[in-house]
Structures
1.
Amino acid sequence: MQRLTNKQIILGITGGIAAYKSAELTRLLKSAGADVRVVMTPSATEFITPLTLQALSGNPVHLHLLNAEAEAGMGHIELAKWADMVLIAPASANFMARLASGQGDDLLTTLCLATEAPICLAPAMNQAMWRDNGTQNNTATLTKRDVKLFGPGVGEQACGDNGPGRMLEPEEIANHAAEQFESGALTGKTVFITAGPTREPLDPVRYISNHSSGKMGYALAEAAIEAGAKVKLISGPVNLPAPARLECISVESAQDMLEAAQTDLALCDIFIAAAAVADYRPTAISEHKIKKGSEEIMELHLVKNPDIVATVAASSPKPFTVGFAAETRDILDYARSKLARKNLDLIIANDVSRSDIGFNSDENAVTVVSHSGAETLPQTSKRKLATLLIDKIAAQYHHKA
Ligand code: C5P
């Protein structure tokens, strides 16, 4: 079920006694890492309350097509675009008929018409209704339109009959849903990424920092999510919106960043240190604003910050650890010595003396240095480079594992 990590699933619930099982299905999809938004038909609400599904999904439940308040939040077209999959469980005979005839008379059918995501149904109905020619014709029509059917199962039914039409168990539905997604290079892996600068306070209004934009770290976080990873992004102060589908922890100083990196570190499979951490911080933070004195020269006393990536690499168990080396000369030599000194698995070296790549620019060119060799990736956008880098990191990680 790891393939469900980060997947955005609309769970449609239609009216049927099996709707009570949709609560467990919601829980299973959530615990497999999916983000679940529930859409209910009016008759579904007769069987299970929206409140239950809201609590289990952690998202508001969508009930109406033409509701100004709901449309102001996430309208039906946005929902249709948001979805990586529309899964309808239970799917009643009536719903299947409306879907087969291409109707858009409520939120769920409209969503199905509007979405480009795969649509999967877990039918649930009385065995005679399932066998009825009308339902069978509708099933054939839907299958021809590439709608996937999970089940139905055969067995005892709520009405006392025995035969085909039982909704599959929630575990089976969740497994079928997971099988619809391809496995990514980092499916099911947990990746921590540090990004941006740190700020080292001098007094309540001043700090020491650097020009890191955080763009490379954020692009790596997005690429890791696309590859199926669960991502914790530990970010210094940047002007970038937090990407969706990840946990973003905002920090200021190197010490805050270290603390966030060490929290739940045992869960981390791959640690990528893309942050430009301040090497030193003031030995003391003045409680009040430091006043201008008469002297021409002011001395600041600084103390070394902890090395976050080296601390992570020294921990046990050690995640696969990737660092960056921003250099202005002798790039490969410095990168190799850093790889060894910090006990890293991989280091990504870049030339920050050039203004067209590196720190604040949108492009970068890097050399990936491992213990067995080096590979240069030519200049491209930080987004494209991030995808290439995540592929390389994943390949090296799997090779080592
Ligand atoms: O030693 P240097 O700062 O050049 O090393 C760069 C690499 O080490 C980067 O991956 C950076 O994120 C990481 N680093 C760190 N903590 C520090 C300094 C650097 O994690 N205090």
2.
Amino acid sequence: MVKILIKKKIKNFNKVINVDGDKSISIRSLLIASQSYGVCKIKNLPKSEDILSTINGLKKLGIKIFFKKKTCFIHGNGLNGFKYKKNIIIDAGNSGTFARLLLGLLVRTPYEVKIIGDRSLSKRDFQRIIDPLNQFGAKFVSSNNKKLPLKILGSNYLRPINYFEKKGSAQCKSSVIFAALNTPGKTIINAKKSRNHTELFLKYLNLPLKVVSKKKIDLIEVFGEKQFKSFEYIVPGDISSSAFFIVLTLLAKNSRLKIKNVNINPSRTGFIKIINKMGAKVKFINKKNICGEQLADICVKSQKNFKPIHCPIELNSNAIDEFLIIFLLASKASGISYFRKLEELNKKESPRLKIVSKILKQMGVKIKADDCSIKIFGNPELTIKKKIFIKNYHKDHRIFMTSVIAALCLGGEWVIEDMESYKSSFPSFINILRKIGYIF
Ligand code: S3P
């Protein structure tokens, strides 16, 4: 197991960077390309482990994919165009998004397809996907209590469904949209608000999908079995990856950072809204629209004072992957911050709320937490002088990267295990730290 040792804080910096392409959008772009007719060209796909799992999985289903320079070429075989064989096993690695969304596209498989994953993914809930896909007519076999490894057997007699997505899970919503694409008739989804990249992508391709946006719910109608042609797409930068560098800059001394071409889809900017409420002054400039998604350059500089926050629960789903790094900022705020209704956080690559609570305590931050909420007693003077050992918490990339940022801003002597984990979502993470001047 590779560990990283960090003994000194980051020095001041003034840089312009690019982060890797967005993980959620990249996985969707590959899966949707596999359903089109013809050769798609996708630019700015990160070579992260989750994306490599997606590419390898699609290749096993007969989809030809290759890279020429920085462009990925995908030969789509149309809707229901996977080449099914007996005994196909697809390894989703660490990627919940790939495994759950792919199952939506497998609802017609005539042979069982087995999906496996790493230790962390094999602990995560798949009941949330099995239930709606069962209603379409797909069947599942699991030897691990409705988790991976899981076998899916599709049907030729699929029926459209009426589905209520209550968790604010974009993975559940998207899996159902993908199943609906392969099903005759109209599928109706009432979904608690969550990231809407799948809907925007299908609209960009002019597919028959209607969205009526209400205050807390989106009403989505998908008309199935409409074939579509191949397309070109450029993946925007990942705001979840940017979040680590935004908080690093805020907490470092006398530093400035511009992050170019980041996706600022409002269903993903809960993090920015939350930290701006805490007094951070993060700005978007050069806004533009590319392939149906909004992008901007993000500008941020170091600041001294942050306010505590009573975090509005309606922002939870739009900031779900950023809470660890938000908690780090809250630990430097001048007062008590309170975050509630975060039970989904314990269902991620690791039980994140539990683990971050342990880490904050280790750092000397006073907290009170239960299964779904946390109070953080912020201290603007917080610095660390002791040794901190962060162990391999289920190989969770975001636990690793949050720990590195804490070490670089707060001091102390840190040993952080499981260095390889960052490659699952953000393979440039360490190189960007080098670019802004940190010498490992
Ligand atoms: C994702 C949705 C979120 C998020 C995950 C990516 C997606 O998960 O945590 O990293 O691409 O749809 P849930 O849908 O389980 O909330």
